[in-house]
Design a protein that fits this description.
The complex is a heterodimer. Chain A is α/β, with parallel strands linked by helices. Chain A has helices at 4-58, 92-106, 119-127, 147-162, 214-290, and strands at 76-82, 111-117, 134-138, 168-176, 182-190, 209-211. Chain A has a five-stranded mixed β-sheet with strand order 3-2-1-4-5, sandwiched between helices. In chain A, α1 runs antiparallel to α5 (214-290) and α4 packs across α5. The two termini of chain A are 35 Å apart. The relative contact order of chain A is 0.18. Classes of the chains: A alpha/beta, B alpha+beta. The interface between A and B is medium-sized, with 31 and 23 residues.
C-alpha cells in the first residue's frame, strides 16, 4: 500500500491533469462553436451549388469530359487525406487513417498518390511502409487553411486531371454530424459522378435561359464545385476534430475526477490505519507497563 | 404593392443576405440586367461588379460581388459567389493593401495565367473600393 505522502502527491498531480483537460475541453468547445457556423454556411453554399448543377446537368446534351472516366493503361488514383494536426481527440485520426490504409490495400497493384493535409496523417504515413506513396504534404495547419488555399489546390488538381496525370481523385475526410457523432468517409471528387446530379423530380428544366450558354457555365461551375467541395470537407473535418477533442476531454476530466475520489478514499484509509496503529502501540505499551 | 421574391446571396464562408426583395440588378457576362418577380428560369454567370437590391421596404442595398453564378427559378434567386461585401462594411485599408499587392503581381506577372489572376484581383479590389466610394 502506498504511503499517505505518495498518495497525496498523486492526488496533486491528477488534480492538475484534470485542470488541463478541463481547459482543453473549453478551448475545443469554443473553437467548435466558431467552426460550426462556418461549416453550416459552407454546406448551404455547396447544397445550392449542387442544386444549380443538377438543373444544368439535366439540360445538358451529350456527355461532358468532367463525367467521363479517363482511360489509362496504368490508372493512377489520387487520394487526399484530411487529419488533425494534434492528437488527444479520441479515435478521430486513427479512424480516418485506417480507412485510407484499407483502401490502399484494396487497390493493391494500382498506383496511389497521397496528398496529406494535417500533421497526424503525415507522421503516420511518412514512417510506415507507405511512405513512398506520399506525393504532397500541405504543412499549413488545418485550422488556418482558407478558401483561397483550397482554390489553389483545386486548381492544381484540376489541371493535373485535365493533363491525365491521374484517373480518379478520392477525398478522405470526417463528416460532422453532431458533437457525439461524426463519420469517417470518402468521396470521389473526380470524375464527377453524374448520377448524383440527376434529379428525380422533373421540373421545368427545359425552359431555362442560359447566359452565355450551358456549356460555358458548366466549364466554369465544375472547377468551382470541386473547390467548394474541398473547402467544405476541410471544414467538416475540422469541426469533427474539435467535437472529438471535446468529447475526449470531457471523458478525461470525468476519469480524473473518479481517480481523485478513489485516491482520496484510499488516502483516508491509509491515514486512519496509521492512527489506529499508533493508538494500538500506545495502548499495548501502557498495558505492558501496568503488568 | 409590387410582387416580391426571395433572394439569397451565399459565399463559401457565410450566407451574406437572405430576404424577400422587389427587384435586383446585376452584371452578367453579356451585360447588366435586372430581375423582377416571376422571372423566367435563368442560370447565368456574374462578373465582379456592384449588385443592387431593392427590398420590400423600398430601400436600396448595394453589394460588391466577386465573380459568381446566379440562378433564378420559381421566384427564388440564388447568388453563389466567392466573396461578397455589403455597402458600409468594406475594410478600406485592407482592400487598399490587396490592391497594391495585385498591382505589384500584375507588373511582375510572367505567364498569361498569372496576369489574368492579378487582373481579376485588381478588378475585385477596385469594385470593393467603388462600393466604399473611395
Amino acid at each position: 500500500m502506498l504511503s499517505t505522502r505518495e498518495i497525496k502527491q498523486r492526488i496533486r498531480s491528477i488534480t492538475s491533469i484534470k485542470q488541463i483537460t478541463r481547459a482543453m475541453e473549453m478551448v475545443a468547445a469554443s473553437r467548435l462553436k466558431k467552426v460550426e457556423s462556418r461549416v453550416l454556411a459552407s454546406r448551404a453554399f455547396t447544397e445550392k451549388m449542387h442544386a444549380v448543377l443538377s438543373h444544368l446537368v439535366s439540360s445538358l446534351e451529350g456527355s461532358h469530359p468532367w463525367f467521363a472516366e479517363k482511360e489509362q493503361k496504368a490508372p493512377v488514383i489520387k487520394v487526399i487525406l484530411i487529419t488533425a494536426d494534434k492528437g488527444l481527440c479520441g479515435a478521430y485520426n486513427n479512424n480516418i487513417i485506417q480507412k485510407v490504409v484499407k483502401y490502399i490495400k484494396e487497390k493493391a497493384g494500382q498506383e496511389i498518390k497521397l496528398t496529406l493535409i494535417g500533421k497526424k496523417g503525415y507522421s503516420y504515413f511518412s514512417r510506415g511502409k507507405y511512405a513512398s506513396l506520399i506525393e504532397k504534404y500541405i504543412p499549413e495547419s488545418v485550422e488556418k487553411l482558407g478558401y483561397g488555399q483550397m482554390q489553389a489546390l483545386a486548381g492544381q488538381l484540376i489541371k493535373g486531371y485535365e493533363r491525365s496525370e491521374f484517373s480518379e481523385l478520392h477525398l478522405f475526410f470526417t463528416k460532422f454530424h453532431t458533437v457525439m457523432q461524426s463519420f469517417s468517409t470518402s468521396m470521389r471528387l473526380l470524375p464527377i459522378d453524374k448520377g448524383a446530379f440527376e434529379t428525380k423530380e422533373k421540373k421545368t428544366v427545359g425552359e431555362y435561359i442560359f447566359e452565355p450558354n450551358a456549356e460555358q457555365i458548366v466549364d466554369h461551375l465544375f472547377p468551382k464545385f470541386v473547390e467548394t467541395r474541398l473547402y467544405q470537407c476541410i471544414l467538416e473535418s475540422l469541426t469533427s476534430e474539435y467535437a472529438a477533442r471535446r468529447v475526449a476531454m470531457i471523458a478525461a476530466t470525468e476519469n480524473a475526477g473518479e481517480m481523485i475520489d478513489e485516491l482520496v478514499s484510499s488516502y483516508n484509509k491509509a491515514r486512519q490505519a496509521a492512527i489506529t496503529k499508533e493508538l494500538l502501540e500506545v495502548v499495548s505499551g501502557a498495558e505492558a507497563l501496568v503488568r | 404593392m409590387a410582387k416580391t421574391f426571395k433572394l439569397e446571396i451565399i459565399t463559401p464562408e457565410k450566407v451574406v443576405y437572405t430576404d424577400t426583395v422587389q427587384s435586383f440588378s446585376a452584371d452578367g457576362t453579356e451585360g447588366s440586367f435586372g430581375v423582377l418577380a416571376d422571372h423566367a428560369p435563368l442560370i447565368t454567370e456574374l462578373q465582379t461588379s456592384i449588385f443592387t437590391v431593392h427590398d420590400t421596404g423600398n430601400k436600396t442595398i448595394r453589394f460588391a460581388l466577386d465573380r459568381g453564378f446566379l440562378e433564378v427559378m420559381a421566384n427564388n434567386a440564388v447568388v453563389l459567389t466567392d466573396a461578397c461585401v455589403k455597402e458600409g462594411e468594406v475594410n478600406v485599408e485592407k482592400i487598399r493593401t490587396e490592391k497594391d499587392v495585385a498591382e505589384k503581381s500584375l507588373s511582375s506577372a510572367g505567364t498569361a495565367e498569372e496576369k489574368e489572376k492579378a487582373l481579376s484581383l485588381l478588378k475585385r479590389a477596385n469594385t470593393w473600393l467603388k462600393l466604399a466610394n473611395k
